[in-house]
Specification:
The structure is a homodimer. By secondary structure, chain A is α/β, with parallel strands linked by helices. The first copy, chain A, has two domains: 2-174, 3-Layer(aba) Sandwich (Rossmann fold); 187-281, 2-Layer Sandwich (Pantoate--beta-alanine Ligase, Chain: A,domain 2). Chain A has nine helices and ten strands. The longest helix of chain A has 22 residues, at 194-215. The radius of gyration of chain A is 19 Å and the shape is globular.
Protein backbone atom coordinates (compact mmCIF):
# COMPACT_ATOMS: atom_id res chain seq x y z
CA UNK A 1 0.00 0.00 0.00
CA UNK A 2 1.27 3.43 -0.92
CA UNK A 3 0.50 6.64 0.95
CA UNK A 4 0.29 9.90 -0.97
CA UNK A 5 0.39 13.24 0.86
CA UNK A 6 0.35 15.44 -2.24
CA UNK A 7 -1.64 15.56 -5.45
CA UNK A 8 1.56 15.13 -7.45
CA UNK A 9 2.56 12.00 -5.51
CA UNK A 10 -0.90 10.54 -5.88
CA UNK A 11 -0.91 11.11 -9.64
CA UNK A 12 2.47 9.46 -10.08
CA UNK A 13 1.45 6.49 -7.94
CA UNK A 14 -1.88 6.10 -9.72
CA UNK A 15 -0.30 6.30 -13.19
CA UNK A 16 2.29 3.64 -12.33
CA UNK A 17 -0.31 1.32 -10.83
CA UNK A 18 -2.75 1.64 -13.73
CA UNK A 19 0.04 1.08 -16.25
CA UNK A 20 1.07 -2.10 -14.44
CA UNK A 21 -2.46 -3.34 -13.80
CA UNK A 22 -4.98 -1.98 -16.34
CA UNK A 23 -8.61 -1.87 -15.29
CA UNK A 24 -11.03 0.25 -13.32
CA UNK A 25 -9.95 2.56 -10.51
CA UNK A 26 -12.32 2.63 -7.53
CA UNK A 27 -12.40 5.61 -5.15
CA UNK A 28 -13.54 5.49 -1.51
CA UNK A 29 -13.54 9.05 -0.11
CA UNK A 30 -13.62 9.18 3.69
CA UNK A 31 -12.96 11.54 6.57
CA UNK A 32 -11.01 8.77 8.33
CA UNK A 33 -11.67 7.23 11.75
CA UNK A 34 -12.68 4.25 9.67
CA UNK A 35 -15.32 1.72 10.70
CA UNK A 36 -17.01 -1.28 9.15
CA UNK A 37 -19.13 1.01 6.98
CA UNK A 38 -15.96 2.27 5.29
CA UNK A 39 -14.63 -1.28 5.10
CA UNK A 40 -17.76 -2.34 3.23
CA UNK A 41 -17.11 0.40 0.64
CA UNK A 42 -13.51 -0.76 0.20
CA UNK A 43 -14.64 -4.35 -0.25
CA UNK A 44 -17.22 -3.39 -2.84
CA UNK A 45 -14.57 -1.35 -4.67
CA UNK A 46 -12.25 -4.34 -4.58
CA UNK A 47 -14.88 -6.63 -6.07
CA UNK A 48 -15.41 -4.27 -8.99
CA UNK A 49 -12.08 -2.52 -9.62
CA UNK A 50 -8.47 -3.42 -10.35
CA UNK A 51 -7.13 -0.56 -8.24
CA UNK A 52 -8.66 0.78 -5.02
CA UNK A 53 -7.94 4.26 -3.72
CA UNK A 54 -9.08 5.56 -0.34
CA UNK A 55 -8.86 9.20 0.62
CA UNK A 56 -8.66 10.33 4.23
CA UNK A 57 -9.38 14.02 4.63
CA UNK A 58 -11.38 15.82 7.30
CA UNK A 59 -12.72 18.59 5.10
CA UNK A 60 -13.01 21.88 7.01
CA UNK A 61 -15.38 23.54 4.51
CA UNK A 62 -18.21 21.11 5.17
CA UNK A 63 -18.31 21.92 8.90
CA UNK A 64 -20.22 24.92 10.17
CA UNK A 65 -18.52 27.40 12.53
CA UNK A 66 -20.15 25.79 15.57
CA UNK A 67 -19.72 22.21 14.43
CA UNK A 68 -17.18 19.57 15.39
CA UNK A 69 -14.33 20.08 12.89
CA UNK A 70 -11.58 20.45 15.47
CA UNK A 71 -12.79 17.66 17.72
CA UNK A 72 -13.80 15.32 14.86
CA UNK A 73 -12.14 11.98 15.77
CA UNK A 74 -8.84 11.23 14.01
CA UNK A 75 -6.55 8.20 14.19
CA UNK A 76 -4.39 8.02 11.12
CA UNK A 77 -2.21 5.08 12.17
CA UNK A 78 -5.28 2.95 12.82
CA UNK A 79 -6.87 4.12 9.55
CA UNK A 80 -3.77 3.17 7.55
CA UNK A 81 -3.75 -0.29 9.18
CA UNK A 82 -7.41 -0.80 8.21
CA UNK A 83 -6.73 0.29 4.62
CA UNK A 84 -3.75 -2.07 4.47
CA UNK A 85 -5.86 -4.92 5.81
CA UNK A 86 -8.54 -4.22 3.22
CA UNK A 87 -6.00 -4.33 0.39
CA UNK A 88 -6.26 -0.66 -0.52
CA UNK A 89 -3.62 0.24 -3.13
CA UNK A 90 -3.22 3.97 -2.47
CA UNK A 91 -4.27 6.05 0.50
CA UNK A 92 -4.42 9.74 -0.37
CA UNK A 93 -4.17 11.64 2.91
CA UNK A 94 -3.46 15.29 2.09
CA UNK A 95 -3.09 18.29 4.37
CA UNK A 96 -5.69 21.07 4.37
CA UNK A 97 -3.14 23.26 2.56
CA UNK A 98 -2.75 20.67 -0.20
CA UNK A 99 -6.50 20.56 -0.83
CA UNK A 100 -7.09 24.29 -0.33
CA UNK A 101 -3.96 25.94 -1.69
CA UNK A 102 -3.21 29.49 -0.67
CA UNK A 103 -5.87 31.83 -2.01
CA UNK A 104 -8.27 29.06 -3.04
CA UNK A 105 -11.66 30.64 -3.69
CA UNK A 106 -13.49 28.25 -5.98
CA UNK A 107 -16.69 26.71 -4.66
CA UNK A 108 -19.10 24.21 -6.15
CA UNK A 109 -22.80 24.29 -5.35
CA UNK A 110 -25.38 21.70 -6.34
CA UNK A 111 -28.44 23.94 -6.04
CA UNK A 112 -31.83 23.30 -4.38
CA UNK A 113 -30.99 19.74 -3.31
CA UNK A 114 -28.27 21.29 -1.12
CA UNK A 115 -30.50 23.59 0.87
CA UNK A 116 -33.14 21.27 2.34
CA UNK A 117 -33.02 18.72 5.22
CA UNK A 118 -29.30 18.33 6.07
CA UNK A 119 -28.59 21.46 4.02
CA UNK A 120 -31.15 23.47 5.99
CA UNK A 121 -29.85 22.16 9.33
CA UNK A 122 -26.22 22.70 8.27
CA UNK A 123 -26.03 25.79 6.03
CA UNK A 124 -23.12 25.54 3.57
CA UNK A 125 -22.48 21.89 4.43
CA UNK A 126 -23.23 20.52 0.96
CA UNK A 127 -21.30 23.31 -0.79
CA UNK A 128 -18.30 22.17 1.24
CA UNK A 129 -18.97 18.54 0.34
CA UNK A 130 -19.51 19.37 -3.36
CA UNK A 131 -16.33 21.47 -3.49
CA UNK A 132 -14.09 18.87 -1.88
CA UNK A 133 -15.56 15.98 -3.84
CA UNK A 134 -15.10 17.88 -7.11
CA UNK A 135 -11.43 18.21 -6.15
CA UNK A 136 -11.21 14.53 -5.17
CA UNK A 137 -12.84 13.50 -8.46
CA UNK A 138 -10.43 15.73 -10.42
CA UNK A 139 -7.44 14.38 -8.49
CA UNK A 140 -8.35 10.71 -8.27
CA UNK A 141 -9.29 10.12 -11.91
CA UNK A 142 -11.29 7.12 -10.80
CA UNK A 143 -13.96 5.22 -12.72
CA UNK A 144 -16.21 4.55 -9.75
CA UNK A 145 -16.76 6.37 -6.48
CA UNK A 146 -18.22 4.50 -3.51
CA UNK A 147 -20.38 6.30 -0.94
CA UNK A 148 -22.55 5.07 1.90
CA UNK A 149 -26.33 5.23 1.78
CA UNK A 150 -26.24 6.40 5.40
CA UNK A 151 -25.56 9.89 4.04
CA UNK A 152 -28.51 9.49 1.68
CA UNK A 153 -28.83 13.16 0.75
CA UNK A 154 -25.08 13.45 0.23
CA UNK A 155 -25.27 10.51 -2.14
CA UNK A 156 -28.01 12.29 -4.12
CA UNK A 157 -26.03 15.54 -4.16
CA UNK A 158 -22.93 13.72 -5.42
CA UNK A 159 -24.84 11.82 -8.12
CA UNK A 160 -26.20 15.17 -9.30
CA UNK A 161 -22.73 16.70 -9.18
CA UNK A 162 -21.04 13.93 -11.17
CA UNK A 163 -23.82 13.99 -13.76
CA UNK A 164 -23.99 17.79 -14.02
CA UNK A 165 -20.25 18.38 -14.18
CA UNK A 166 -19.84 15.47 -16.59
CA UNK A 167 -17.21 13.69 -14.53
CA UNK A 168 -16.37 10.28 -16.03
CA UNK A 169 -17.13 8.56 -12.74
CA UNK A 170 -20.01 6.38 -11.64
CA UNK A 171 -21.29 7.20 -8.15
CA UNK A 172 -22.11 3.91 -6.41
CA UNK A 173 -24.31 3.92 -3.29
CA UNK A 174 -23.67 1.15 -0.74
CA UNK A 175 -26.00 -0.14 2.04
CA UNK A 176 -25.93 1.22 5.59
CA UNK A 177 -23.86 -0.94 7.95
CA UNK A 178 -25.27 -1.28 11.48
CA UNK A 179 -24.18 -2.58 14.85
CA UNK A 180 -25.89 -5.81 15.91
CA UNK A 181 -28.36 -3.74 17.95
CA UNK A 182 -29.30 -1.57 14.97
CA UNK A 183 -27.22 1.60 15.52
CA UNK A 184 -25.97 2.85 12.16
CA UNK A 185 -22.18 3.00 12.11
CA UNK A 186 -20.75 6.51 12.29
CA UNK A 187 -17.41 7.97 13.26
CA UNK A 188 -19.42 10.25 15.55
CA UNK A 189 -20.78 7.34 17.63
CA UNK A 190 -17.65 7.59 19.81
CA UNK A 191 -18.99 10.89 21.16
CA UNK A 192 -21.98 9.14 22.77
CA UNK A 193 -22.15 8.38 26.49
CA UNK A 194 -23.44 4.92 27.42
CA UNK A 195 -26.83 6.43 28.24
CA UNK A 196 -27.00 8.40 24.99
CA UNK A 197 -25.93 5.35 23.00
CA UNK A 198 -28.73 3.28 24.52
CA UNK A 199 -31.30 5.96 23.71
CA UNK A 200 -29.86 6.37 20.18
CA UNK A 201 -31.22 2.93 19.35
CA UNK A 202 -34.60 4.67 19.08
CA UNK A 203 -33.51 5.96 15.64
CA UNK A 204 -33.17 2.58 13.95
CA UNK A 205 -36.06 1.23 16.02
CA UNK A 206 -38.30 4.03 14.76
CA UNK A 207 -37.26 3.34 11.16
CA UNK A 208 -37.90 -0.37 11.60
CA UNK A 209 -41.36 0.35 13.06
CA UNK A 210 -42.18 2.50 10.02
CA UNK A 211 -40.87 -0.22 7.70
CA UNK A 212 -43.15 -2.71 9.43
CA UNK A 213 -46.16 -0.39 8.96
CA UNK A 214 -45.15 0.06 5.34
CA UNK A 215 -44.97 -3.72 4.88
CA UNK A 216 -48.48 -3.93 6.32
CA UNK A 217 -49.69 -1.53 3.64
CA UNK A 218 -49.71 1.80 5.51
CA UNK A 219 -49.12 4.58 2.93
CA UNK A 220 -50.09 7.66 4.93
CA UNK A 221 -47.04 9.91 5.12
CA UNK A 222 -48.02 11.65 8.35
CA UNK A 223 -48.80 8.38 10.14
CA UNK A 224 -45.39 6.95 9.18
CA UNK A 225 -43.50 10.07 10.25
CA UNK A 226 -45.49 10.24 13.47
CA UNK A 227 -44.58 6.67 14.36
CA UNK A 228 -40.86 7.43 14.03
CA UNK A 229 -41.15 10.62 16.07
CA UNK A 230 -43.07 8.81 18.77
CA UNK A 231 -40.29 6.25 19.16
CA UNK A 232 -37.57 8.89 19.41
CA UNK A 233 -39.51 11.37 21.53
CA UNK A 234 -39.86 8.66 24.19
CA UNK A 235 -36.12 9.08 24.88
CA UNK A 236 -35.45 12.03 27.22
CA UNK A 237 -31.95 12.82 25.84
CA UNK A 238 -33.02 12.80 22.18
CA UNK A 239 -33.66 16.12 20.46
CA UNK A 240 -35.11 15.75 16.98
CA UNK A 241 -33.68 17.97 14.24
CA UNK A 242 -36.05 16.54 11.64
CA UNK A 243 -37.93 13.41 10.67
CA UNK A 244 -38.58 13.60 6.95
CA UNK A 245 -40.54 11.46 4.56
CA UNK A 246 -39.74 12.84 1.15
CA UNK A 247 -39.83 12.02 -2.52
CA UNK A 248 -36.81 9.88 -3.31
CA UNK A 249 -35.70 12.08 -6.24
CA UNK A 250 -36.60 15.64 -5.31
CA UNK A 251 -36.56 15.27 -1.50
CA UNK A 252 -39.80 17.25 -1.45
CA UNK A 253 -41.68 16.49 1.74
CA UNK A 254 -44.62 14.15 1.20
CA UNK A 255 -48.12 14.42 2.66
CA UNK A 256 -51.18 12.20 2.24
CA UNK A 257 -50.90 8.90 0.43
CA UNK A 258 -47.48 7.84 -0.85
CA UNK A 259 -47.37 6.44 -4.36
CA UNK A 260 -43.66 6.53 -5.32
CA UNK A 261 -40.44 5.47 -3.56
CA UNK A 262 -39.86 7.69 -0.54
CA UNK A 263 -36.86 8.41 1.66
CA UNK A 264 -37.58 8.30 5.38
CA UNK A 265 -34.68 10.15 6.99
CA UNK A 266 -33.93 11.76 10.30
CA UNK A 267 -31.40 13.75 12.26
CA UNK A 268 -31.36 13.67 16.05
CA UNK A 269 -29.14 15.36 18.61
CA UNK A 270 -27.88 13.80 21.80
CA UNK A 271 -26.15 16.66 23.57
CA UNK A 272 -23.55 17.99 21.12
CA UNK A 273 -23.66 14.82 19.02
CA UNK A 274 -25.81 14.79 15.92
CA UNK A 275 -26.77 11.44 14.40
CA UNK A 276 -28.50 10.69 11.09
CA UNK A 277 -30.15 7.58 9.75
CA UNK A 278 -32.58 6.65 7.00
CA UNK A 279 -34.39 3.96 5.09
CA UNK A 280 -35.95 3.80 1.66
CA UNK A 281 -39.64 2.91 1.46
CA UNK A 282 -40.36 1.54 -2.00
CA UNK A 283 -43.85 0.47 -3.15
CA UNK B 1 -10.78 14.85 -37.93
CA UNK B 2 -13.56 13.37 -35.83
CA UNK B 3 -16.63 15.24 -34.62
CA UNK B 4 -18.20 14.30 -31.28
CA UNK B 5 -21.71 15.46 -30.40
CA UNK B 6 -21.95 13.62 -27.10
CA UNK B 7 -19.72 13.16 -24.07
CA UNK B 8 -19.77 9.38 -24.63
CA UNK B 9 -18.63 9.74 -28.26
CA UNK B 10 -15.89 12.16 -27.30
CA UNK B 11 -14.57 9.82 -24.59
CA UNK B 12 -14.45 6.87 -26.97
CA UNK B 13 -12.70 8.94 -29.66
CA UNK B 14 -10.20 10.37 -27.21
CA UNK B 15 -9.39 6.99 -25.69
CA UNK B 16 -8.78 5.43 -29.11
CA UNK B 17 -6.60 8.34 -30.25
CA UNK B 18 -4.49 8.44 -27.08
CA UNK B 19 -4.01 4.67 -27.20
CA UNK B 20 -2.79 4.89 -30.80
CA UNK B 21 -0.68 8.01 -30.30
CA UNK B 22 0.50 8.43 -26.69
CA UNK B 23 1.41 11.91 -25.55
CA UNK B 24 -0.20 15.09 -24.29
CA UNK B 25 -3.75 16.08 -25.10
CA UNK B 26 -4.26 19.79 -25.78
CA UNK B 27 -7.67 21.43 -25.36
CA UNK B 28 -8.82 24.60 -27.14
CA UNK B 29 -12.26 25.59 -25.79
CA UNK B 30 -14.14 28.03 -28.03
CA UNK B 31 -17.60 29.42 -28.65
CA UNK B 32 -17.05 28.92 -32.40
CA UNK B 33 -17.19 31.52 -35.18
CA UNK B 34 -13.47 30.91 -35.25
CA UNK B 35 -10.90 33.53 -36.21
CA UNK B 36 -7.12 33.78 -36.34
CA UNK B 37 -7.00 34.15 -32.56
CA UNK B 38 -8.51 30.67 -32.19
CA UNK B 39 -6.19 29.40 -34.93
CA UNK B 40 -3.19 30.62 -32.96
CA UNK B 41 -4.39 28.59 -29.95
CA UNK B 42 -4.76 25.47 -32.11
CA UNK B 43 -1.28 25.95 -33.55
CA UNK B 44 0.25 26.36 -30.10
CA UNK B 45 -1.56 23.22 -28.95
CA UNK B 46 -0.22 21.39 -32.00
CA UNK B 47 3.34 22.43 -31.23
CA UNK B 48 3.09 21.08 -27.69
CA UNK B 49 0.66 18.15 -27.80
CA UNK B 50 0.23 14.84 -29.63
CA UNK B 51 -3.55 15.22 -29.78
CA UNK B 52 -5.49 18.46 -30.22
CA UNK B 53 -9.12 18.81 -29.20
CA UNK B 54 -11.26 21.86 -29.94
CA UNK B 55 -14.64 22.40 -28.36
CA UNK B 56 -17.30 24.55 -29.99
CA UNK B 57 -20.09 25.47 -27.61
CA UNK B 58 -21.92 28.75 -27.20
CA UNK B 59 -22.51 28.49 -23.47
CA UNK B 60 -25.86 30.03 -22.46
CA UNK B 61 -25.02 30.35 -18.76
CA UNK B 62 -22.26 32.90 -19.33
CA UNK B 63 -24.59 35.34 -21.09
CA UNK B 64 -26.77 37.74 -19.13
CA UNK B 65 -30.51 37.95 -19.85
CA UNK B 66 -30.02 41.09 -21.96
CA UNK B 67 -26.86 39.92 -23.68
CA UNK B 68 -26.30 38.47 -27.13
CA UNK B 69 -26.69 34.71 -26.61
CA UNK B 70 -29.32 34.18 -29.28
CA UNK B 71 -27.67 36.45 -31.85
CA UNK B 72 -24.10 35.37 -31.05
CA UNK B 73 -22.60 34.54 -34.48
CA UNK B 74 -22.54 30.85 -35.42
CA UNK B 75 -21.20 29.09 -38.52
CA UNK B 76 -20.49 25.48 -37.75
CA UNK B 77 -19.58 24.33 -41.26
CA UNK B 78 -16.97 27.08 -41.55
CA UNK B 79 -15.68 26.30 -38.01
CA UNK B 80 -15.27 22.61 -38.84
CA UNK B 81 -13.35 23.51 -42.03
CA UNK B 82 -10.99 25.73 -40.01
CA UNK B 83 -10.43 22.98 -37.42
CA UNK B 84 -9.76 20.50 -40.22
CA UNK B 85 -7.27 22.90 -41.84
CA UNK B 86 -5.51 23.38 -38.49
CA UNK B 87 -5.14 19.62 -38.04
CA UNK B 88 -7.47 19.37 -35.03
CA UNK B 89 -8.03 15.71 -34.12
CA UNK B 90 -11.41 15.90 -32.39
CA UNK B 91 -14.02 18.65 -32.43
CA UNK B 92 -16.41 18.33 -29.52
CA UNK B 93 -19.55 20.26 -30.50
CA UNK B 94 -22.29 19.29 -28.05
CA UNK B 95 -25.88 20.53 -27.77
CA UNK B 96 -26.99 22.63 -24.80
CA UNK B 97 -28.89 19.57 -23.52
CA UNK B 98 -25.74 17.47 -23.62
CA UNK B 99 -23.81 20.00 -21.51
CA UNK B 100 -26.70 20.89 -19.20
CA UNK B 101 -28.63 17.64 -18.81
CA UNK B 102 -32.21 17.76 -17.59
CA UNK B 103 -32.30 19.09 -14.05
CA UNK B 104 -28.67 20.24 -13.99
CA UNK B 105 -28.21 22.52 -10.99
CA UNK B 106 -24.51 22.45 -10.18
CA UNK B 107 -22.63 25.71 -10.46
CA UNK B 108 -18.99 26.61 -9.95
CA UNK B 109 -17.91 29.99 -8.64
CA UNK B 110 -14.36 31.32 -8.41
CA UNK B 111 -15.03 33.96 -5.76
CA UNK B 112 -13.92 37.60 -5.57
CA UNK B 113 -11.98 37.50 -8.86
CA UNK B 114 -15.33 36.80 -10.55
CA UNK B 115 -17.16 39.84 -9.28
CA UNK B 116 -14.96 42.76 -10.38
CA UNK B 117 -14.35 44.37 -13.81
CA UNK B 118 -15.99 42.02 -16.35
CA UNK B 119 -17.75 40.28 -13.47
CA UNK B 120 -19.20 43.58 -12.22
CA UNK B 121 -20.27 44.61 -15.73
CA UNK B 122 -21.67 41.15 -16.47
CA UNK B 123 -23.11 39.67 -13.23
CA UNK B 124 -22.98 35.87 -13.26
CA UNK B 125 -20.77 35.78 -16.35
CA UNK B 126 -17.77 34.15 -14.71
CA UNK B 127 -19.90 31.65 -12.79
CA UNK B 128 -21.21 30.55 -16.19
CA UNK B 129 -17.67 30.40 -17.57
CA UNK B 130 -16.37 28.51 -14.52
CA UNK B 131 -19.24 26.03 -14.63
CA UNK B 132 -18.89 25.22 -18.31
CA UNK B 133 -15.09 25.05 -18.20
CA UNK B 134 -15.23 22.69 -15.19
CA UNK B 135 -17.44 20.45 -17.32
CA UNK B 136 -15.11 20.76 -20.33
CA UNK B 137 -12.09 19.94 -18.15
CA UNK B 138 -13.90 16.91 -16.69
CA UNK B 139 -14.98 15.74 -20.15
CA UNK B 140 -11.84 16.48 -22.16
CA UNK B 141 -9.27 14.90 -19.83
CA UNK B 142 -6.64 17.09 -21.44
CA UNK B 143 -3.16 17.90 -20.15
CA UNK B 144 -3.12 21.50 -21.34
CA UNK B 145 -5.86 24.03 -21.99
CA UNK B 146 -5.18 26.99 -24.30
CA UNK B 147 -6.91 30.32 -23.75
CA UNK B 148 -6.41 33.78 -25.24
CA UNK B 149 -4.91 36.63 -23.27
CA UNK B 150 -7.57 38.87 -24.82
CA UNK B 151 -9.94 37.60 -22.14
CA UNK B 152 -7.33 38.39 -19.50
CA UNK B 153 -9.61 38.17 -16.48
CA UNK B 154 -11.15 34.93 -17.77
CA UNK B 155 -7.64 33.51 -18.05
CA UNK B 156 -6.98 34.45 -14.42
CA UNK B 157 -10.30 32.98 -13.31
CA UNK B 158 -9.58 29.71 -15.13
CA UNK B 159 -6.04 29.47 -13.74
CA UNK B 160 -7.53 29.89 -10.27
CA UNK B 161 -10.21 27.31 -11.04
CA UNK B 162 -7.80 24.65 -12.33
CA UNK B 163 -5.49 25.21 -9.37
CA UNK B 164 -8.27 25.30 -6.77
CA UNK B 165 -10.17 22.29 -8.06
CA UNK B 166 -6.91 20.38 -8.57
CA UNK B 167 -7.57 19.55 -12.21
CA UNK B 168 -4.56 17.86 -13.80
CA UNK B 169 -4.46 20.47 -16.56
CA UNK B 170 -2.08 23.33 -17.24
CA UNK B 171 -3.85 26.53 -18.28
CA UNK B 172 -1.78 28.16 -21.01
CA UNK B 173 -2.34 31.83 -21.92
CA UNK B 174 -1.65 32.85 -25.51
CA UNK B 175 -0.99 36.35 -26.93
CA UNK B 176 -3.74 38.58 -28.32
CA UNK B 177 -4.00 38.38 -32.11
CA UNK B 178 -4.82 41.68 -33.84
CA UNK B 179 -5.85 42.91 -37.28
CA UNK B 180 -3.11 44.81 -39.15
CA UNK B 181 -4.66 48.09 -37.91
CA UNK B 182 -4.60 46.99 -34.27
CA UNK B 183 -8.17 45.83 -33.62
CA UNK B 184 -8.08 42.77 -31.36
CA UNK B 185 -9.73 39.81 -33.05
CA UNK B 186 -13.14 38.91 -31.64
CA UNK B 187 -16.11 36.96 -32.94
CA UNK B 188 -18.17 40.02 -31.98
CA UNK B 189 -16.29 42.30 -34.42
CA UNK B 190 -18.79 41.25 -37.13
CA UNK B 191 -21.45 43.24 -35.27
CA UNK B 192 -19.61 46.53 -35.92
CA UNK B 193 -20.69 48.97 -38.63
CA UNK B 194 -17.91 50.46 -40.75
CA UNK B 195 -18.06 53.66 -38.69
CA UNK B 196 -18.01 51.81 -35.38
CA UNK B 197 -15.14 49.64 -36.53
CA UNK B 198 -13.07 52.71 -37.46
CA UNK B 199 -13.74 54.27 -34.04
CA UNK B 200 -13.01 50.94 -32.28
CA UNK B 201 -9.37 51.40 -33.27
CA UNK B 202 -9.21 53.91 -30.40
CA UNK B 203 -9.06 50.93 -27.99
CA UNK B 204 -5.78 49.50 -29.19
CA UNK B 205 -4.49 53.02 -29.93
CA UNK B 206 -5.16 54.04 -26.33
CA UNK B 207 -3.39 50.94 -25.03
CA UNK B 208 -0.40 51.62 -27.31
CA UNK B 209 -0.23 55.22 -26.10
CA UNK B 210 -0.15 54.02 -22.51
CA UNK B 211 2.53 51.45 -23.38
CA UNK B 212 4.60 54.25 -24.91
CA UNK B 213 4.24 56.39 -21.75
CA UNK B 214 5.16 53.32 -19.69
CA UNK B 215 8.26 52.76 -21.85
CA UNK B 216 9.19 56.39 -21.17
CA UNK B 217 9.03 55.74 -17.45
CA UNK B 218 5.58 57.01 -16.52
CA UNK B 219 4.37 55.03 -13.48
CA UNK B 220 1.43 57.15 -12.36
CA UNK B 221 -1.68 54.94 -12.53
CA UNK B 222 -4.13 57.78 -12.97
CA UNK B 223 -2.11 59.41 -15.75
CA UNK B 224 -1.92 56.14 -17.65
CA UNK B 225 -5.64 55.41 -17.28
CA UNK B 226 -6.48 59.00 -18.24
CA UNK B 227 -4.48 58.76 -21.44
CA UNK B 228 -6.44 55.67 -22.55
CA UNK B 229 -9.79 57.26 -21.67
CA UNK B 230 -8.85 60.41 -23.58
CA UNK B 231 -8.16 58.42 -26.74
CA UNK B 232 -11.46 56.53 -26.54
CA UNK B 233 -13.62 59.45 -25.39
CA UNK B 234 -12.59 61.32 -28.54
CA UNK B 235 -14.76 58.86 -30.50
CA UNK B 236 -18.44 59.88 -30.44
CA UNK B 237 -19.84 56.33 -30.78
CA UNK B 238 -17.67 54.87 -28.01
CA UNK B 239 -19.21 54.39 -24.57
CA UNK B 240 -16.69 53.30 -21.95
CA UNK B 241 -17.74 50.53 -19.56
CA UNK B 242 -14.43 50.68 -17.71
CA UNK B 243 -10.76 51.48 -18.12
CA UNK B 244 -8.89 49.63 -15.41
CA UNK B 245 -5.28 49.60 -14.31
CA UNK B 246 -5.08 46.87 -11.73
CA UNK B 247 -2.69 44.60 -9.91
CA UNK B 248 -1.89 41.71 -12.20
CA UNK B 249 -2.70 39.08 -9.54
CA UNK B 250 -5.55 40.46 -7.47
CA UNK B 251 -7.06 42.79 -10.08
CA UNK B 252 -7.30 45.40 -7.34
CA UNK B 253 -7.44 48.85 -8.90
CA UNK B 254 -4.14 50.76 -8.63
CA UNK B 255 -3.60 54.39 -7.69
CA UNK B 256 -0.43 56.42 -7.34
CA UNK B 257 2.90 54.96 -8.42
CA UNK B 258 2.92 51.48 -9.93
CA UNK B 259 5.62 49.12 -8.65
CA UNK B 260 4.46 45.66 -9.75
CA UNK B 261 3.16 44.23 -13.04
CA UNK B 262 -0.22 45.75 -13.84
CA UNK B 263 -3.03 44.81 -16.17
CA UNK B 264 -4.42 47.71 -18.21
CA UNK B 265 -7.80 46.52 -19.45
CA UNK B 266 -10.91 48.08 -20.85
CA UNK B 267 -14.44 47.40 -22.03
CA UNK B 268 -16.16 49.75 -24.46
CA UNK B 269 -19.60 49.65 -26.07
CA UNK B 270 -20.40 50.65 -29.62
CA UNK B 271 -24.19 50.52 -29.75
CA UNK B 272 -25.13 46.99 -28.66
CA UNK B 273 -21.62 45.67 -29.28
CA UNK B 274 -19.26 45.37 -26.34
CA UNK B 275 -15.53 45.07 -27.02
CA UNK B 276 -12.69 44.31 -24.61
CA UNK B 277 -8.92 44.67 -24.93
CA UNK B 278 -5.92 44.79 -22.62
CA UNK B 279 -2.18 44.92 -22.25
CA UNK B 280 0.18 43.97 -19.48
CA UNK B 281 2.50 46.67 -18.13
CA UNK B 282 5.49 45.02 -16.50
CA UNK B 283 8.29 46.96 -14.76
Amino acid sequence: MQIARTVADYRAQRAALVAARPGLVGLVPTMGFLHDGHRSLMRRAHEECATVVTTIFVNPTQFGPNEDFTRYPRDEARDFAICEAEGVDIVFAPSVEEMYPDGAETTVSVGPLSTILEGAARPGHFDGVATVVTKLFAIAQADRGYFGQKDAQQLMVLRRLAEDLRFPIEVVGCPIIREADGLALSSRNVYLSAEERAQALSLSRGLREAEAMWAQGVRDADALRRRVRQEIEAEPLAEIDYVSLADQRSLEELHGTIVAPALLSLAVRFGATRLIDNTLLAP
